[in-house]
């Protein structure tokens, strides 16, 4: 048996019949304590077999919109924007590469029936403010970037996230590093933003994760990205799908 990680008491279909049963119990205790018959056994049986199931039905029927608006979509965005290319290596611009990656992840999520929000479709890559607005209400929000360093040999994969998302960050980095035959940076692929050289990042402070898909400044890693980004995107989407399910 597998338990669902949620509080059943938030549902009226649980609350109402429980209250009904509790009320009946009080009545039965009272009539025992007072030695006075309020309801007879037949009436109690009728209530138990009709009123209690009816309360369950009503509880299920009454709309609880506050319970249904959460956890309904996954946000995937591309770093930088149409006007900010991010890091550049020759003809390759970070903003364009991560936009392709975003599209690939979005494709696999849609294919799996997951509702998504993105900071644009096709080659469109909206700016950070737009991306941050898409985080609210999402089950999980991920933005893609590529690292760059003056040391051309620097390589590896990392995901910057709040401590609460450490496990997810490590899982995301792991599959990307595997697909790109790269290595994990930071704490097994996780970088706490408090330890990030970039300091506080808006996307992360607002609850998102930033996956650095390797170093654009490293020729091997750039080549691998271009050859295998579909593979990594599929694995990233698999992680996100199992996270939301
Ligand atoms: Zn970037």
From TrEMBL:
The record's GO molecular-function terms, alphabetically, read: N-acetylmuramoyl-L-alanine amidase activity
Q: What is its EC number?
A: 3.5.1.28
Q: Which UniProt keywords apply?
A: Hydrolase, Membrane, Transmembrane, Transmembrane helix
Q: Does the keyword Amino-acid biosynthesis apply?
A: no
> What's the catalysed reaction?
Hydrolyzes the link between N-acetylmuramoyl residues and L-amino acid residues in certain cell-wall glycopeptides
Q: Name one GO biological process term.
A: peptidoglycan catabolic process
Q: Which residues form the MurNAc-LAA domain?
A: 133-241
| Name of the top EC class for this enzyme | hydrolase
**Does the record bear Hydrolase in its keywords?**
yes
| Gene Ontology cellular-component terms listed | outer membrane-bounded periplasmic space
Transmembrane segment boundaries: 12-34
> What does UniProt give as the signal peptide span?
none
Q: Which Pfam families match?
A: Amidase_3
**PANTHER family with a match to the protein in the record:** N-ACETYLMURAMOYL-L-ALANINE AMIDASE, N-ACETYLMURAMOYL-L-ALANINE AMIDASE AMIC
Name of the molecule in the record: N-acetylmuramoyl-L-alanine amidase
Q: Upper lineage ranks?
A: Bacteria, Pseudomonadati, Pseudomonadota, Gammaproteobacteria, Moraxellales
